């Protein structure tokens, strides 16, 4: 690998792969470009997946399939512009997944990963929409931007390296912060998630909190009811009977005011799905998390915050006003027909309204 944290030997890869066994997928990252070289390297390493970090010869994929049955192929696409969409479309039918990274194979010394740079996520989002295979996102992902990346790109999974390392070594604290951001948990992690107010696992009262802050007080010991609600939702300790329609609105208000609309959708998606499972529910095509409803209410909450001239800084008070305006459970049916809103498609992804445009 001409870029990234460095090379490890095929023998070391083989030891790791054997130790992991079937407990998880193991990936061999290879910069070889011919099928014969990749096959030889894989036979020495023995992983369940090949991650091809450079462009392959046109006939290579069929040769890899023939020689390595049962081994998944993941092709890296280095997102450098619009041409990357065409590259992804051409490669996708031949592989099991794509991985979008921020390298530059055109340089004299190729960059094939581990750059620590983000790329244009709008291009990545177009690729996710265009192809029919899972897409992983990589490149410059860190605790402060991963929620936004998930919201914009909606990848199948994430690939991370530089963002959770310090001096080239895996950093436990950075990894914890990163995963807290992925889970949408604002009460864990560090200042990168909360603008310097909170750090590590310290109590939220360990730093001064202004009246205008979206979170007031320690959710476990006091402060706003909204803060305690969100904490219990994310910890999955909220009693099921308390997860009402109005509770959804209050949690959404906290998320939108804290992170903005797009990142709020990503965090709510994860939080609600996890909570549903924790209380014995399911997320299926007929029950549980509903993407269109979530996005609709986030839209209304953002509209409420943009138009609210009450000057209220207390989220409990603001929540009361939000519920007074948007708390009617029948509100979505002013914009969507029941058949359209309750469809599988609407539950899985955003479906525009068919009766009236959203304000």
Structure overview:
Strands 1-2-3-4-5-6 form a six-stranded parallel β-sheet, with helices on one face. It has a two-stranded antiparallel ribbon with strand order 7-8. Strand 1 (27-30), helix 2 and strand 2 (49-52) form a beta-alpha-beta unit. The model is unreliable at 186-223 (pLDDT under 50). It has helices at 10-20, 35-45, 60-67, 83-91, 121-130, 146-153, 172-183, 225-235, 245-259, 261-278, 291-307, 315-326, 338-341, 344-348; strands at 27-30, 49-52, 72-78, 97-101, 135-137, 157-158, 165-166, 169-170. It is elongated. Helix 2 runs parallel beside helix 3, helix 8 (225-235) packs across helix 9 and helix 9 packs across helix 11. The chain has two domains: 10-140, Aldolase class I (TIM Barrel), CATH 3.20.20; 205-348, no CATH class. With 359 residues, the protein is α/β, with parallel strands linked by helices.
Brief digest:
It is built from 14 helices and eight strands.
Biggest sheet descriptor: 6 strands, parallel
* Tally of discrete structural domains: 2
Task: Kindly state the number of beta strands.
Answer: 8
Report the portion of residues in β strands.
Answer: 5-15%
Overall pLDDT score: 82
Oligomer: single chain
Widest beta sheet: strand line-up: 1-2-3-4-5-6
> Low-confidence parts lasting 5 or more residues at pLDDT below 50?
186-223
Structural class: alpha/beta
Shape category? elongated
End-to-end CA span: 51 Å
- Helix fraction? 40-55%
- Number of continuous helical runs: 14
Radius of gyration from the CA trace? 23 Å
String of helices and strands: HEHEHEHEHEHEEEHHHHHHHH
